[in-house]
Design a protein that fits this description.
The protein has 74 residues and is mostly helical. 84% of the residues lie in helices and 0% in strands. The longest helix has 42 residues. InterPro entries: YjiS-like.
């Protein structure tokens, strides 16, 4: 009987795990899209425009990652 109880209890666990997996995938994809959009927009600026923002071209990826993480966390 213990086997049946264990088996029944584990049936609901994968469904919850799949839902969590899907939500995590959605969040990661949204974060990636925000990151790519920010990188593309900043990369399109001239060095002068970046300097006006207080950025150097080498900082674009780090700033984009930070912006994507901050945006999704809100």
């Amino acid at each position: 009987m213990a086997v049946a109880s264990t088996h029944t209890a584990s049936k609901s666990a994968p469904a919850f795990g799949i839902a969590t997996l899907i939500e995590n995938a959605k969040a990661r994809f949204a974060r990636y899209r925000m990151y790519r959009q920010t990188v593309n927009e900043l990369a399109g600026l001239s060095d002068r425009e970046l300097a006006d923002l207080g950025l150097h071209r080498s900082m674009i990826r780090r700033v984009a990652m930070q912006a994507a993480n901050d945006h999704i966390a809100q």
